[in-house]
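Lecture 7, part 2: worked example. A protein chain together with iron/sulfur cluster.
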Amino acid sequence: MVAEALKNEVKERCGELNIPMVGFASTDRWKNPPSELPNHFDEWIPLDFWPQSIYPETETVIVIGLPIQIPILDTAPSIYYHELYKTVNILLDIKAYEIASWLTQKGYPSIYLPRDGYGDITVLLDNPLAFFSHRHAAFLAGLGSFGLNNVILTSEYGPRVRFTSIFTSARMESDELKTPDLCTRCFKCANHCPVDAIPTSGDFPPPMDKRTCALRSQKLRSEYRSPCGICIKVCPVGNDREIFNRKDTSIYSDKNNSNMIRKGWYHVKEYGSKK
Ligand code: SF4
Ligand code: SF4
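Predicted complex, written out as structure tokens:
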């Protein structure tokens, strides 16, 4: 089957699986990063983290993304967001596994990757990296640009989308890199971070204080309300803000308890987790 027809079939399959975001990146993009990328890095992805180093037969990385619904994220940290995060992660794993199996059956051996890939938050305190970065894969597949908060920003959902990847031996053309740098440098993510883990100066995207962020996550986990989610909920980027009527991000600073939206958050936070 010609590469273009197969790529169209993968996109159709993603449509059937209700996956709104899909991108394609040839492994060559890890080896020879294109000059038109929206962000540039002083240090490129180390060789051991390339898809072809993990599964040498890989020709193309397919990246899929599922959105996080803003009104639920708005309650974060909470048991409600905790459950949504788990659900989206499980769905991503299942859908990626299905796509990999379907491609394998068609004669193109393929493997899925888990959206996370760490046993416990304590592991991240010592070594805050996964064996593969879906954020960089999404970036190389043209799905978005890096934000100050080190998360991929997309025009559709801002940073409120979770990604995973499929490594396939099928050759398919990479998607166009037409995404601009979407981060407005508004610093809302950094200013709302309760532990100051996001630097506001220096290189871009800035190296975050991953250990401090992981320590907060560990504390929230002991209270049954991880992950934190604050830096992605306050980000003004994304058409989802319009869809959910959340264009006005001052709701995150305005402590007026009579605000109906905030009342809902406080109610949710009262139940199912420790405060
Ligand atoms: S997840 Fe929370 S602690 Fe970590 S950087 Fe974002 S706001 Fe800060
Ligand atoms: S909140 Fe502002 S600075 Fe932070 S990632 Fe979003 S656009 Fe960039």
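The longest strand covers residues 60-67. The mean pLDDT is 95. Keep this in mind for problem set question 3.
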